[in-house]
């Protein structure tokens, strides 16, 4: 066994996730040469542990489809896509894409985007801490230079765009809003951020996602505003600038190089 | 880029000044106000999420049988999806009839 550790590890991992595989060669116990039952306990705990990790990361998805359905779906996911990192906080990054292709959940087309929002929420929670620049920092700016500044976004900033009202669905299923039928069915772009210890989730105004994504991509403020305007003629620059600064999304600002 | 989408620097500067003036009232409606006085530490976890330092991935299940079978699609969703009304009706997640 020690001569071929890689092969042993592969067969062990394979047997962990597939109940029809025999106990891996080399596993033994004091009371049984081949401890089938003991290995089954271990195998089940691995699956249940991973399922619980997914449950704790996607509580709203679970609430929408119910515990039984979620558990069954998680088990399929665990078998198909076991963890590739020892950090379980990142486990489930691929669950939204899995749900989008998951036939039994096809009736709920918004479910994958709700999962994307929940995955982004955990990433935002575990992102590096940073103190955002407050409005007072911008007072006394040379306003002529404003169009050229670039924004160093807060590391916790995440944006999830959707043709479904995912922020409303998330809020109703996380206890932030009363659960009720959604009469005004429209797409919502979600802003997820954590300028303080509390993760905040907001619905962005029209053009807001295009504006923030352009800024995050490194475009100067004026170019980002133009990108947002090109996508959304009703883009409100003043409101979005106030949102950008007031929501604590600015970690730092980079001034353009002075012209020679 | 379409020339009508080019924004004059003066417009941006004006919007910027107006934005700073209105920041006293948040522009993006937040479902919950931030709590900037709290320190991040163990014990403060996201609402609806367990503390990832110890909770997730650990289990005391200790049974040999699989807790849930993969063929559980026979279950009709007992969650809230039927409350979410879409233009195509509510979700039901009844078994796929093939």
Please provide a written account of the structure:
The complex is a heterodimer of chains A (260) and B (98). Chain A has 260 residues and is mostly helical. Chain A folds into two domains: 10-108, no CATH class; 130-260, no CATH class. Helix content of chain A is 45%, strand content 8%. Chain A has helices at residues 5-17, 36-57, 59-65, 67-80, 95-100, 111-126, 166-173, 208-216, 221-231, 237-246; strands at 150-153, 158-160, 190-193, 200-203, 250-254. Chain A is elongated. Chain A starts with a helix and ends in a 6-residue tail after the last strand. Chain B has 98 residues and is mostly loops. Chain B has a two-stranded antiparallel sheet. Chain B is elongated. Residues 32-59 of chain B have low confidence and may be disordered. The chains are: A mainly alpha (260), B little secondary structure (98). Chains A and B meet through helix 2, helix 3, helix 4, helix 6 and helix 7 of A and helix 1 and strand 1 of B.
What's the arrangement of secondary structure elements?
The complex is a heterodimer of chains A (260) and B (98).
Chain A: H1 5-17, H2 36-57, H3 59-65, H4 67-80, H5 95-100, H6 111-126, E1 150-153, E2 158-160, H7 166-173, E3 190-193, E4 200-203, H8 208-216, H9 221-231, H10 237-246, E5 250-254
Antiparallel strand pairs in A: 1-5, 2-3, 3-4
Chain B: H1 9-22, E1 85-86, E2 89-90
Which of globular, elongated, flat, extended, rod-shaped describes the shape of chain A? elongated
Q: Give the oligomeric state of the chains in this entry, treating copies of one chain as homo and distinct chains as hetero.
A: heterodimer
**Computed structural class of chain B:** little secondary structure
Low-confidence stretches of chain A: none
Radius of gyration of chain B: 25 Å
Order of the strands making up the biggest sheet of chain A: 2-3-4
Main sheet overview of chain A: 3 strands, antiparallel
Strand content of chain B: under 5%
Q: Outline the low-pLDDT stretches of chain B.
A: 32-59
- Topology of chain B as a string of helices (H) and strands (E): HEE
